[in-house]
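Long-time lurker, first post. I've been practising inverse folding by hand and with some scripts of my own, and I keep getting stuck on stretches where the structure tokens seem ambiguous. Below is the full token string for one chain I'm working on. Before anyone asks, I'm not after the true native sequence, just a reasonable design that respects the backbone. If someone could post their per-position residues I'd love to compare against what I wrote down in my notebook.
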């Protein structure tokens, strides 16, 4: 197997060696979609971006943004290979043929690296096979990631391909934090431990926080809330995570769009016996029909808030459960860290819902945590402070940029390879 890259950091503080011919194509291949960006890792400038959606359905298609315009095609797309071929075709249609665009590397988001991968890794046949073998730990994600990798290797055979793993940032969690209290031999035999996810985002954002505060990351205790349709939190001491909410899979932890987070495992056995559900039905329910959707019928946070405004009781309860879980983990992480210097919100909900931020941190002034309403509700999409003047703990909103982090990591791997 190809050794992992020596690139140890993908936080936003560093700059990759860049240039006009150092564009990176970033691919996030999901179960039925392919998100992508072509960007310059040094400047962060995005040349083009888009998404292929509904792969395998009649109403599939692509939406591609380039040069201030959008190109859209709706057509059946059989699989990820066909989807990525369509991406290449649309790039050429827009005047940016990927074969001649100066692409130096392709960076792939891979959800689960297991115990094997904990750094950005140059892809070869053995790496692809191992990622595929890890699909038992991420059955909804890793097979799709492999499909995207194989397609990109076929379409750009002369370009280095690099895997960047969602779990990598949390690889070094303390033993007490990553260990489940189950039969130790069984856990070891099946790779059962807390792996954590959204690591690329948590690492990037924590690096940006240190820069915004003009502080050495080694001197900071941070709590990061990555709140999107998937949601996770992390406790970071001195630039290194000491705990995170997601576990063996992305099901553990916070309430999410379609995932319920923490759950009494006895519920699963109860559903088998009382509701006569099999493992696949339970897995489908926990991944796709729990969380906000399970409680309220909707998983889009904007729709949830609209329902609350018209008095929907189920939506109100779903929101309250969501906030309750955020506050529970914040309290746990304050104790684990022994105090916190910064609390940061990122991702779709974290960046765009001031009410969530206000409610998550309400009534915590005795802990030095206070949100300024004017700052919090201001229409501003930039990274910013929203804590009250004079508050001991900095509260921030920092837009995540996983694509930029992946691009920089990929280019660093390629540069290290050439240096060898």
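-- Answer (accepted) --
I ran through it position by position. Result:
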């Amino acid at each position: 197997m190809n050794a992992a890259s020596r690139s140890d950091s993908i936080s936003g503080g560093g700059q990759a060696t860049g240039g006009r011919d150092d564009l990176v194509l970033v691919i996030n291949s999901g179960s039925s979609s392919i998100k992508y960006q072509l960007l310059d890792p040094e400047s962060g400038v995005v040349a083009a971006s888009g998404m292929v959606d509904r792969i395998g359905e009649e109403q599939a298609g692509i939406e591609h943004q380039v040069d201030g315009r959008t190109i859209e095609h709706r057509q059946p797309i059989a699989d990820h290979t066909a989807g990525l071929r369509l991406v290449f075709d649309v790039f050429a249609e827009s005047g940016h043929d990927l074969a001649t665009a100066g692409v130096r590397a392709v960076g792939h988001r891979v959800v689960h690296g297991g115990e094997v991968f904990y750094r950005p890794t140059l892809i070869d046949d053995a790496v692809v096979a191992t990622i595929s073998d890890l699909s038992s730990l991420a059955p909804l994600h890793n097979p799709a990631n492999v499909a995207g990798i194989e397609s990109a290797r076929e379409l750009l055979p002369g370009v280095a391909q690099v895997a960047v793993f969602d779990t990598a940032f949390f690889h070094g969690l303390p033993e007490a934090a990553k260990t489940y209290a189950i039969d130790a031999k069984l856990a070891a035999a099946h790779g059962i431990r807390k792996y954590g996810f959204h690591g690329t985002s948590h690492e990037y954002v924590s690096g940006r926080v240190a820069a915004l505060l003009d502080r050495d990351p080694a001197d900071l205790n941070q709590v990061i809330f990555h709140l999107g349709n998937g949601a996770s939190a992390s406790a970071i001491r001195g630039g290194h995570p000491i705990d995170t909410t997601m576990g063996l899979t992305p099901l553990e932890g916070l309430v999410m769009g379609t995932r319920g987070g923490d759950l009494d495992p006895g519920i699963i056995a109860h559903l088998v016996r009382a509701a006569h559900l099999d493992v696949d039905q339970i897995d489908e329910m926990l991944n796709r029909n729990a969380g906000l959707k399970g409680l309220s019928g909707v998983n889009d946070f904007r729709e949830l808030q609209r329902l609350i405004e018209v008095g929907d009781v189920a939506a109100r309860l779903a929101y309250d459960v969501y906030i309750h879980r955020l506050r529970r983990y914040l309290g746990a992480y304050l104790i684990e860290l022994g105090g916190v210097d910064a609390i940061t919100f990122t991702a779709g909900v974290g960046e765009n819902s001031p009410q969530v931020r206000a409610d998550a941190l309400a009534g915590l002034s005795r802990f030095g945590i206070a949100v300024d309403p004017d700052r919090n509700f201001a229409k501003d999409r930039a990274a910013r402070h929203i804590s009250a003047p004079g508050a001991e703990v900095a509260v921030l909103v920092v837009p995540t940029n996983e694509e930029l982090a992946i691009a920089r990591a990929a280019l660093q791997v390629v540069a290290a390879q050439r240096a060898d």
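A couple of notes from the structure itself: DSSP finds 15 helices and 14 strands in the chain. The chain has a mean pLDDT of 92. Happy to go over any region you disagree with.
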